[in-house]
Amino acid sequence: MHLHILAFLAVALVASHAAVPPEKYWNSVLPNTPMPKALSDLLQPGLVDDKSTSVDVGKGGVNVDAGKGKPAGGGTHVGVGGKGVGVQTGKPGGKGTNVGVGKGGVSVSTGHKGKPVYVGVKPGKNPFVYNYAATENQLHDDPNVALFFLEKDLHPGTKMNLHFTKNTNTATFLSRQVANSIPFSSNKVADIFNRFSVKPGSMEADIIQSTIEECEKTGIKGEEKYCATSLESMVDFSTSKLGKDVQAISTEVGKETQMQKYTIVPGVKKVGSDKSVVCHKQNYVYAVFYCHATETTQAYMVPLEGADGTKAKAVAVCHTNTSEWNPKHLAFQVLKVKPGTVPVCHFLPEDHVVWASK
C-alpha cells in the first residue's frame, strides 16, 4: 500500500474536526512572512479556501470533492458516513484507486493486479541527517548525491551536475488538532499500523517505523532536533529558536528535469546569520518534517540556469563544522573530504525548508 494513498485519509480526518486551518495560524503568528511553496503545496484542499473543493455535510456524513470543479471527472471524492470513509481517485469505474475506511480499518485496491511499487528514500537512508551513513549502492543510485558541494565553489560561473527531485511521498499536512490525536511514538507503532491498516513487516511499516525512530534519536552535539507533525508545530519550533522576525525559503525549479549541468549565475545572496532551522520532509502517512537548529550553518539563495534553459532558485545550506558527523556520511564520500576539515554545502530538494532571521 502506498503511503501517499494512505494520506488521502487525512482529508476525511480533517473533515471530521472543526480545526483552525494551519494557514490561519501561520498568518496570525507570522503576518509578515510569506509561506514558501514547499509548505503551501502541502495544505489540503479542505484546509484552505479553495473554490475547486466542495464540502457537503449532511446526516449521511461528509462528502468532499477536490476535482477542480469536475466532481464527475477524474478528481478525488471522499465520503464519510456511518460506515466509515470512502475515497476514490481517478475516473469513476476506471483504474483509479479506491480506499475504503470502515470499522475494519483501511482497504486499498490499486486498480491493477500485483503489489504497488513504493519509490523513495529507503528507511534509514536520509542523506540530510548528520549521523547517516551512506551505502555503496547509494553513491550510484541516490540522486541526492549531486546536491553536495564545497563552499569554495559557491560563486557565479561554477557548473554542477544536479538533479532536483521531488519526494514521491505527497502526503499533506494534518491540522495540529488532528495530528496530536494520532500516536507518533515507537511504543505505539502497533496502534499506528492498525489505524492505517498497514501490515507489520511490509515496506510501508518499515518506512513508518524508521521515520519515527529517526525522530526519536538524540541529535549530534550542537544540534537541536525536532520532528514537526503539523505546520503549526513547525512554526512554533522555528520561532522558539529564531524569534518571529523570520523568513522561510525553499528551492523552486522552473520544471522537473533529469540530471543536467547547471551554472550558478550572478545574484547569490546570504540568508540570515549563522543560526538557522532546516526542516526536511520525511516519508510518512501525513506530512512530517525533521527539523534541526544549529549555530554552525549558513544559508544562501542561489540562482541557477540549466543547460536546457531551466531556471531555478535553489536554497543552499553550508555547514561550517562537520566534526560530529558520521565519517561515512554521503557528503564525505562524494566530496572526498574528512569530518571537520572544510565547510560542506548542499542544495535542498524542493520539499525542504530553511528558516532564518530576517
Automatic annotation (TrEMBL):
The keyword Signal applies. It comes from the Eukaryota. Residues 1-18 form the signal peptide. Residues 61-106 are annotated as: Disordered. Residues 148-358 form the BURP domain. InterPro entries: BURP, BURP_dom. Residues 70-105 have a biased composition (Gly residues). Keywords: Signal. This is BURP domain-containing protein. It comes from Quercus lobata (Valley oak). The gene is LOC115971494.
